[in-house]
Design a protein that fits this description.
The complex is a heterodimer.
Chain A lengths: L1 E11 L4 E12 L4 E5 L6 H8 L7 E6 L2 E2 L5 H11 E5 L10 H11 L4 H14 L15 H13 L5 E5 L7 H16 L3 E5 L3 H4 L4 E6 L2 E7 L6
Parallel strand pairs in A: 3-8, 3-9, 6-7, 7-8
Antiparallel strand pairs in A: 1-2, 1-4, 4-5, 9-10
Chain B lengths: L1 H14 L1 H29 L11 E10 L1 E5 L2 E2 L2 H8 L3 E7 L3 E7 L2 E11 L3 H4 L4 E4 L10 E5 H8 L8 E6 L2 E11 L12 E4 H7 L1 H5 L4 E9 L5 H5 L2 H16 L2 E8 H7 L12 H28 L1 H13 L4 H38 L13 H25 L3 H4 L11 H34 L9 E4 L4 H5 L1 H9 L4 E7 L8 E7 L8 E8 L3 H5 L3 E4 L9 H4 E5 H7 L8 E4 L11 E8 L14 E5 L6 E6 L4 H15 L8 E2 H6 L3 H35 L1 H9 L4 H35 L10 H28 L2 H6 L2
Parallel strand pairs in B: 6-11, 8-10, 17-22, 19-21
Antiparallel strand pairs in B: 1-2, 1-12, 1-13, 3-12, 4-12, 5-6, 5-9, 7-10, 8-11, 9-10, 14-23, 14-24, 15-23, 16-17, 16-20, 18-21, 19-22, 20-21
Helix pairs in contact in B: 1-2, 1-13, 2-11, 2-13, 2-24, 11-14, 11-16, 11-24, 13-14, 16-24, 16-26, 16-27, 24-27, 26-27
Classes of the chains: A alpha/beta, B alpha+beta.
């Protein structure tokens, strides 16, 4: 599903050039659950942004679903993003002015899906995330765990084949963190590919494979055979 | 999708109450100003266009050179009939005289009426004055007939039919009964042309056939109705031959030249700038000036919107990032934000319409108009307002929309992003621009008020305070003037009494003279004034040389004249006493060709407003030609003196109503246009500043928000509250100072041009500029310091906890 060859990302500001990623080679198969770990500033989020088409690499190839996309324009990336990639962030990034239902509905709006179909699908997902009772609440009225469940609902509502999660449990206590991990895990079981950045070794074990990054390089890959349920 | 945008926009407006209030209030006030001024401009542009033939009506004007240049919209009475018979393209023509102030009596009630004119009956063929009753074909074709407006009919006859009723009119020619022959609708307010009553031109002819037949007396206002297929420029080409045919002899004898030309009716109100205008006109400069002010006030409001929207972009950044992550393109986001600003704009215009209803009465009384938001009579109004809202929304929204939609999701979604630097240069430029406009408006307002103050207080060469004028003397009063004067002087409180043909501030009369050293072919046009021996002292005028007329010297009326210093300067005389003037003709006197000797020079005095230079003036002594009595009264017990005067007048002249005005009020009324300009500019500058301050208040609250951490750290390190307030105010202060540097030269050029219209003007003082700058700075500091003090007083622990 994802094949990355010799990926390099350099950030340039006025005077300083920072190499965030260097010689990244990576393959992720359809249906995999991959955790990315590493100390702060090692390039985890940069890698996730590149995989999520939020940014273009400086060098290297990125094949997503068999297509080379590393030189795509913003417009093309946006088109590819919607519908095929779902995002979950550490800080939830829900839109404050929209209710739970409306936040979840947003990806479907941008896909141009009809109102009745949207309603049906959103309700289905909210039901699945056990947040249906809160459908008319605004994000500020929810707990952190509930907010992240809405964020996950929003990420999966368009049934993307890939979900990218950037420290989804970083702002949550362990109880809510566990809940979110359970959700991701069950999504993966249902066939969605998941790439997750995390600081927590325990949560990383939910994945089948952990990639360790250090100073922009992949240092180790641990492959696990068993699933955590 | 649209409903999603709408939801977000409305919820944002509700959630961010302060911010929304500032935006909506600013835009609404800006729009109110703009619509008010646009209504006024539209009204100015619509003048006289209600006549069905408006585009075919022209006013005949002369450009004469008889010693001095005279360009005026007047012509000679025989010109109109001659043109009809000689030029096929002239379909019709009407002659009028300058409207007069007349006493009108019906049964036992008497009123003073302004705007009572004379006109040929053809006026109703040329202009559109709908008749309610009477025959428009003949209404003004017989002598002593009068056509009145609805208001007049109501005033004199109530609900009775006015046609056939008889009114007694008292004017300077005497008194006569006039039969009402027509009732017309009230004239629209956008009419340069106005009358309350129109008497038949035949009446004038009956009274003075010579005057009406004279090819030399240019005092009639003539309007021509041209044929549909003719062009006025073509007609004008035939005028030189026409002048030659009819007036060539007189002109060559006098060595003068005279040109006739036409002025389109629809250009009169805004573009006419003649001496001896028939009615007060507007000025296209003010239309431009006010339009510019309207645009500026609206721009200030738009700048606020832009500033606030970009300043608080941090609060929207996450939403932008998330929407982009979910696949929204830049175009969709631009559409969303533009839509939001248009929503703001539409809310504002609804508010503006409410504000307009409240502001219109005030504005109407300031601008002397009857403007209204009549949605039904003006079908373009609602689409026009919606168009304005759309334009303002797009204008105010486009920069924030492009700015916000350009955020990179990678950067904004991490939550580490700050907006301190982004868009700040642009915002700063906008705030500076707002202050440039405000400061220029303040400078303009102060200058206008200074000039008005200067004009009202400048020494005029006479003392205008406590002077009462009784105008429109009739023949009987003139004949018994000396005994009337003595009766008036007996009243306690009356200090002096004089008489004259004209009064300062009420126009001038011109004629041609032959001063010593000028031949028959070098006539000199000069203003002239006819007085009695007491007029000069009564007015408080002073002699520079020689003596005043004396009632004891019987030769003075026939042999002596007094001139002003401007005359002495004009002819370059070192020793003016003893110089002579030969007359061509003196209206109201038959002293054809007499020679008079200068016996005195009066110090220059202002006969006209301070807009005009003091012109050479020649003063004659002739009691039989005076029209006004001037009474100087003691400053104390004015009411009592007035009562005594009224009683005395009733005894002297039981038939004639006691009509009077005060000289100072009448003279100062010449500056009404300037005063109006001053008040309107004052209000609009206040509003501009208010909107600007609303914006600054909002901006400073965001700046303070952004610098919360800095303030906390500084306080922990020992900064005082004063220090923090200064720190936060410093930036805004700098902007205002920069704005001053830009505003000063621009405002200087503008006010200097405005002042150039006045022959007597103030010099522009640097204190005006400093004061304007200081006022702007003060208001800015008040707006900013509110937030700054709040931030400085806050506990640093609170602001640092979030780090």
């Amino acid at each position: 599903m994802i094949r990355v060859v010799n990926l390099k990302k350099i950030y340039t500001t006025d005077e300083v050039e920072t190499t965030a990623l260097e010689s990244i080679n990576l393959e992720i198969k359809e249906g995999e659950f991959v955790a990315i770990m590493g100390p702060s500033g090692c390039g985890k989020s940069t890698l996730l942004n590149l995989l999520g088409l939020l940014d273009n690499p400086t060098e290297g190839e990125y094949h997503l679903l068999g297509t080379e996309v590393s030189r795509y324009s913003e417009r093309k990336r946006a088109n590819l993003r919607k519908g095929s990639i779902g995002f979950v962030f550490q800080s939830f990034n829900l839109i404050d002015e929209l209710t739970v239902f409306e936040n979840t509905e947003l990806p479907l709006l941008y896909l141009g899906i009809s109102s009745s179909k949207r309603r049906k699908r959103v309700e289905e997902v909210l039901e699945q995330m056990q947040i249906m009772a809160r459908r008319n609440h605004f994000p500020q009225q929810l707990s952190g765990g509930q907010q992240q469940r809405v964020a996950v609902a929003r990420a999966v509502v368009a049934s993307p084949r890939l979900i990218l999660a950037d420290e989804p449990t970083g702002n949550l206590d362990s109880k809510h963190g566990d809940e979110v991990m359970q959700l991701l895990s069950s999504l993966n079981e249902a066939g969605t590919t998941i790439v997750m950045v995390t600081h927590s070794p325990a949560y990383a074990e939910y994945g089948q494979r952990t990639i360790n990054l250090f100073d922009g390089h992949i240092v180790t890959e641990n492959i696990r055979e068993k699933f955590h349920l | 999708m649209f409903s999603n945008y709408l939801k977000v926009a409305l919820r944002n407006i509700i959630r961010q109450k302060g911010y929304s209030f500032i935006n909506v209030a600013g835009l609404a006030i800006g729009m109110t100003c703009c619509i008010l001024i646009l209504l006024w401009v539209q009204d100015e542009m619509s003048y006289d266009r209600y006549h069905e033939n408006a585009d075919r009506i022209y006013r005949l004007c002369i450009d004469a050179n008889l010693g001095t240049q005279l360009r005026a919209p007047v012509s000679m009475a025989p010109v109109a009939p001659a043109m009809i018979s000689e030029f096929p393209e002239v379909v019709s023509a009407v002659r009028m005289v300058r409207p007069e102030r007349v006493s009108v009596k019906y049964e036992d009630r008497t009123f003073q009426e302004e705007n009572v004119g004379f006109a040929d009956n053809s006026i109703f063929d040329i202009f559109t004055f709908p008749f309610i009753s009477g025959d428009r074909q003949t209404a003004l074709s017989t002598p002593y007939s009068v056509v009145i407006t609805e208001d007049m009919a109501q005033k004199y006859f109530g609900d009775q039919e006015p046609v056939g009723k008889v009114l007694r009119l008292y004017d300077e020619r005497g008194e006569a009964d006039f039969t009402v022959t027509g009732l017309v609708k009230n004239l629209p307010s956008n009419s340069n042309f106005s009358f309350n009553m129109l008497r038949s031109f035949e009446t004038l002819y009956r009274a003075d056939p010579q005057l009406v037949e004279a090819w030399i007396t240019a005092r009639f206002y003539t309007y021509l109705l041209l044929d549909k297929n003719s062009h006025y420029a073509e007609l004008e080409k035939k005028f030189p031959a026409f002048v030659d045919r009819h007036m060539g002899g007189v002109l060559s004898a006098m060595g003068g030249t005279l040109k006739l030309f036409l002025q389109p009716l629809t250009k009169i109100h805004l573009y006419s700038d003649f001496e001896r205008e028939q009615f007060a006109t507007g000025d296209i400069t003010y239309v431009y000036l006010f339009s510019a002010i309207a645009l500026f006030v609206l721009l200030i409001a738009c700048f606020n919107f832009v500033n606030l929207a970009t300043a608080r972009s941090a609060t929207r950044a996450r939403e932008v990032g998330m929407r982009k992550t979910l696949g929204a393109g830049k175009g969709k986001l631009i559409g969303q934000f533009l839509g939001e600003s248009v929503i703001y704009s539409f809310i504002s215009i609804v508010l503006a319409c409410i504000l307009l209803e409240l502001a219109l009465p005030l504005f109407n009384s300031l601008a002397q108009r009857e403007l209204s938001l009549n949605y039904f009579q003006r079908p373009w109004l609602i689409p026009g307002l919606a168009g304005l809202a759309l334009v303002v929304g797009l204008l105010a929204g486009c920069y924030p929309a492009f700015f916000l939609s350009s955020f990179k999701p990678v950067r904004v979604l991490k939550g580490t992003w700050s907006t301190t630097a982004s868009g700040s240069a642009f915002r700063r430029a906008l705030v500076v621009a707002q202050f440039v406009i405000s400061i220029a408006l303040i400078i303009g307002t102060i200058t206008i008020y200074n000039q008005i103050h200067f004009m009202k207080n400048k020494k005029l060469g006479f003392d205008k305070e406590h002077v009462l004028v009784i105008p429109n003397l009739n023949q009987a009063t003139r004949e018994s003037y000396l005994s009337i004067r003595d009766e008036l002087l007996n009243i306690p409180g009356v200090m002096a009494v004089g008489a004259s043909s004209m009064m300062p501030g009420k126009g001038v009369t011109k004629s041609v003279f032959f001063p010593e050293g000028f031949s028959d072919s070098q006539p000199q046009a000069m203003d002239y004034l006819i007085v009695d021996a007491d007029y000069i002292p009564t007015m408080g005028m002073e002699m520079a040389e020689g003596r005043n007329f004396s009632a004891d010297l019987p030769t003075d009326p026939d042999e002596s004249v007094i001139i002003n210093q401007a005359t002495v300067r004009k002819f370059g005389w070192n020793d003016p006493i003893g110089k002579t003037f030969r007359l061509l003709s003196l209206p109201g006197s038959d002293q054809e060709g007499a020679t008079l000797t200068v016996i005195g020079v009066v110090k220059d005095f202002h006969m006209a407003s301070l807009r005009q230079k003091i012109e050479p003036q020649i003063i004659f002594y002739d009691i039989s030609s005076v029209n006004n009595i001037t009474v100087r009264i003691a400053p104390r017990n004015i009411t009592h003196t007035m009562d005594l005067l009224k009683n005395e007048w009733k005894k002297i002249n039981p038939q004639r109503p006691f009509d009077y005005f005060f000289m100072d009020e009448s003279f100062d009324s010449q500056y009404r246009a300037e005063e109006r300009l001053g008040t309107i500019t004052l209000y609009f500058s206040l509003l501009a500043i208010l909107i600007g301050c609303l914006g600054l208040f909002g901006m400073s609250s965001y700046t303070v928000e952004q610098r919360t951490k800095e303030i906390g750290v500084r306080k922990v390190l020992g900064a005082t509250v004063t220090g923090i307030v200064l720190l936060l105010s410093k930036e805004f202060t700098r902007w205002v100072l920069v704005a001053n540097i830009i505003a000063w030269p621009a405002a200087y050029l503008l006010v200097d041009r405005w002042l150039d219209d006045f022959a007597y003007r103030i010099s522009i003082s640097w204190t005006t500029f400093v004061l304007a700058g200081f006022l702007a700075l003060l208001t800015a500091l008040v707006a900013v310091s509110f937030q700054a003090v709040k931030a400085a007083l806050a506990n640093p622990v609170d602001s640092l906890r979030y780090e």
